[in-house]
Amino acid sequence: MSDQTIPQAAAPEVGPEGPPAPDGPTRRRLLGTAGATGLVLGAAGAAVGYVSAPAQATPLSSIGAGQVPFHVKHQPGITEGLQARGHLVAFDLAAGAGRKEAVALLRRWSETARRLMAGEAAPNDDTDVARDAGPSSLTITFGFGNSFFARTGLEKQRPVALDPLPDFSSDHLDKARSNGDLWVQIGANDALVAFHGLRAIQKDAGSAAKVRWQMNGFNRTPGATAHPMTARNLMGQMDGTRNPKPTESDFDQRIFVPASSKKDPAWMANGSYAVVRRIRMLLDDWEKLSLTAQEQVVGRRKANGAPLSGGDETTAMDLEKTDANGDLVVPLNAHARITRPDQNGGAAMLRRPFSYHDGIDVDGTPDAGLLFVCWQADPLRGFVTVQRKLDRGDALSKYIRHEASGLFAVPGGAAQGEYVGQALLEA
Hints:
Mean pLDDT is 89; it is low at 5-24 and 30-55. It is built from eleven helices and nine strands. It has one domain (33-425). The longest helix has 19 residues, at 99-117. Strand 7 and strand 8 (366-376) form a beta hairpin. Helix 3 (99-117) runs antiparallel to helix 5 (191-205). Strands 5, 6, 7, 8 and 9 form a five-stranded antiparallel beta sheet that branches. Strands 2-3-1-4 form a four-stranded antiparallel beta sheet. It has helices at residues 27-33, 62-65, 99-117, 146-151, 191-205, 251-255, 283-286, 291-298, 335-338, 380-391, 422-425, and strands at 85-93, 139-144, 182-188, 209-218, 272-281, 350-351, 354-360, 366-376, 400-410.
């Protein structure tokens, strides 16, 4: 967690050619236009099984109608607003699989992502899970782990920024649920649409790759509040205040790798680096604290996210303000103080997390917390800088535990007619 605001449904960048026109029938179009034929065939028979429906389809709700384009400058799933449901999954290439198999796999994945994000049926053996839904702002994002490059003979193309993350004092990492050759982030505002994407990606992996780990998360559904608000985490705190915003002049240089970068390989132009951490919240201990104690740990009011120094959520925090006893109003070890960019040499990350709950342990302890995902142009200057400072005395560290970790290079978006990672795999 950190003291930064998630942008609310920022519009994705679209190349000069604009969003692509769907070349296959959408799920909703199939339902509304099948007519008397009783069957509609999309490209390569993609829509087999989508049978006749009334001639006029019922309009989608605003949530179902939301659509994010696949062919964009930066991959989808980075600057868009938080989604209601998410799945994170890492794959390892199968024994004997290499660059050739990786090329075929990324081609399949990219085509599946393009179709599903447009509200179309999956190109191969669609499961019908999302049959009645629209795109629901589905995004599918792909990245490469450190180990991918040795597996594919592309060691010379591995970015220095993918060097393993250092160890931190709050780490209790499960290696089986960390890292991986390939990483996929799937998000949508409908749970069935998100699962449909996950299942299609898993099936497309075929014999080329096997799942290494998979995690499920959620956020508040867009529209559930009277107006857009910063998300709350499972501790009840507003989580994301002061996140970098796409409207800021230096946003791109802090979050995305520039085409002119001298330290990153050319294939990472317009890409970003994702740090993924499964952070368990020790909720039983946290909930024993009084409201005042919780606010002292975070440095912000629980009710509205305002800094303890006064104002509202967007008010600049006064780090020097003291109370009647001369004590700092925002404690030195408060999480919001330590994570401020101006306290970390300008280090910034675009945080786009999901909460998770994986059941209740036999002793009644909830296995719940945050699937932390942050984006930056340089993970050493972003995540590592901030986490090192948190390691030295963050009051919140007593109530959380980092249980899994990953770092992935996420290339720029695929142009029309291309697949994600093509500049790397066909270099």
